[in-house]
């Protein structure tokens, strides 16, 4: 074998050895990178920033259940960085995802902040982001569930309430047809049909009012509203009802108080309180409507001396179609929507409704609304300022004329 051949063979062997060593080094680096990845508890770059911008509760958890990073909202569920994830259901979800290496979503009821009260319905989603870390996102859907349930109840209750007058009208129409030869009976049935039709119209009207109040649109005609006008209109609309029931209506309290809102909606809301007070008051009693201005708040209280509301009913009295006294509501044609309309109407005006009641002593509904300055008094103040400016201007002009006369 010649020398050049030996050199070529040596070169080839050296090249193969170099390639093998390079492959070994690359493999070693990759193996170390995999090992570091499997054993690392460092949160990936950017994940912390993403968590900080999330509105939902979210956190990164290692294999021991330790929270490595968390969003601000996670604190509502007692999840803190450096602490372990305490909730057993969430831990079970994370363990299941880590075992399969995928993603899973479950609906759970958990408590917030480790409290035993106030369970929340959440949609929890867990995803593996590394061999030792799992991302957990918790979305509170309690309010959404409540709204969905309210919609379902509203449809069911509305259907049930509409069936009664519609069914009555149908039966009465059949009764009229069968009593065509008896004019007296026809008149009686016709009067009852008219009453049922009136009740049906009242129910549909209140359903439409409640739907408008619960819509996302703002109030229609927003302007300064005089509470004096609201009280006067509410009382005037129910004078006949009060006279028929033998109940006196009395108005008292502060005058010239103003709020901002829709006058018609406020009149309907206060009117509903007055109407309820009349219905549940005994003959010869009094219903009082009082107004009190307290700083930036105006309070409108409607009090009666009626049967009162049991403690068990007070929490639900503002629910749609809820009646504390079912028999009396049916007898008087009540729809069970009046107080619900009051609550939503006042809330749309930035206020609240408070209730005080004692069985056998009566009830007081107090409406609290943000107060504004009287626009009339504001115009008077502006006119006074303009008058002072005119007077100052006139004095300056007269002084200037005097100076000019002296110099002349």
UniProtKB/TrEMBL annotation:
Task: Name the chemical reaction catalysed here.
Answer: ATP + protein L-histidine = ADP + protein N-phospho-L-histidine
Which Gene Ontology terms cover its molecular function? phosphoprotein phosphatase activity; phosphorelay sensor kinase activity
Q: Which CDD domains match?
A: HATPase, HisKA
Keyword Transmembrane (UniProt): yes
EC class, as a word, reads: transferase
Among its keywords, does the record have Secreted? Answer: no
The GO annotation for biological process reads: cellular response to phosphate starvation
**InterPro entries per the record?**
BphY/WalK/GraS-like (IPR050351), HATPase_C_sf (IPR036890), HATPase_dom (IPR003594), His_kinase_dom (IPR005467), HisK_dim/P_dom (IPR003661), HisK_dim/P_sf (IPR036097), Sig_transdc_His_kin-like_C (IPR004358)
Q: What SMART domains would the database entry show?
A: HATPase_c, HisKA
Localization per Swiss-Prot or TrEMBL: Cell membrane
Its EC number(s) = 2.7.13.3
Q: Where are the transmembrane segments?
A: 6-29
Q: Which UniProt keywords apply?
A: Kinase, Membrane, Phosphoprotein, Transferase, Transmembrane, Transmembrane helix, Two-component regulatory system
Q: What is this protein called?
A: Sensor-like histidine kinase SenX3
Organism classification? Bacteria, Bacillati, Actinomycetota, Actinomycetes, Micrococcales
């Amino acid at each position: 074998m010649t020398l050049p051949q030996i050199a070529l063979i040596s070169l080839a062997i050296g090249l193969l050895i170099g390639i093998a060593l390079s492959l070994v080094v690359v493999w070693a680096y990759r193996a170390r990178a995999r090992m570091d990845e499997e054993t690392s508890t460092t949160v990936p770059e950017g994940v912390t920033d993403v968590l900080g911008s999330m509105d939902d509760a979210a956190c990164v958890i290692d294999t021991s259940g330790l929270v490595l990073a968390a969003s601000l909202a996670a604190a509502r569920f007692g999840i803190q960085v450096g602490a372990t994830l305490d909730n057993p259901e969430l831990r079970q979800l994370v363990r299941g995802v880590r075992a399969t290496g995928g993603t899973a979503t479950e609906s759970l009821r958990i408590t917030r902040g480790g409290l035993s009260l106030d369970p929340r319905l959440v949609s929890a989603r867990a995803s593996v982001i590394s061999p030792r870390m799992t991302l957990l996102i918790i979305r509170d859907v309690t309010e959404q569930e409540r709204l969905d349930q309210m919609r379902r109840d509203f449809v069911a209750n509305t259907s049930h309430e509409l069936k009664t007058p519609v069914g009555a009208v149908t039966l009465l129409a059949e009764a009229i047809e069968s009593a065509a030869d008896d004019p007296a009976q026809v008149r009686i049935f016709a009067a009852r049909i008219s009453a049922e039709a009136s009740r049906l119209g009242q129910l549909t009207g209140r359903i439409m009012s409640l739907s408008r109040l619960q819509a996302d649109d703002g109030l229609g005609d927003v302007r300064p509203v005089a509470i004096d006008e609201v009280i006067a209109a509410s009382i005037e609309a129910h004078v006949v009802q009060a006279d028929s029931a033998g109940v006196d209506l009395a108005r008292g309290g502060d005058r010239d108080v103003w709020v901002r809102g829709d006058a018609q909606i406020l009149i309907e809301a206060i009117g509903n309180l007055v109407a309820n007070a009349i219905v549940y008051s005994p003959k010869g009693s009094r219903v009082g409507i009082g107004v009190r201005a307290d700083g930036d708040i105006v309070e409108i209280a409607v009090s009666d001396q009626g049967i009162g509301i049991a403690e068990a009913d007070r929490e639900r009295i503002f629910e749609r179609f809820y009646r504390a006294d079912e028999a009396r509501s049916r007898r008087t044609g009540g729809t069970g929507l009046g107080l619900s309309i009051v609550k939503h109407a006042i809330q749309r005006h930035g206020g609240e409704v408070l209730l005080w009641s004692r069985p056998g002593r009566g009830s007081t509904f107090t409406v609290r609304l943000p107060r504004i300055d009287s626009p009339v008094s504001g115009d008077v103040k502006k006119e006074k300022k303009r008058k002072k400016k005119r007077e100052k201007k006139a004095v300056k002009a007269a002084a200037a004329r005097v100076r000019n006369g002296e110099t002349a």
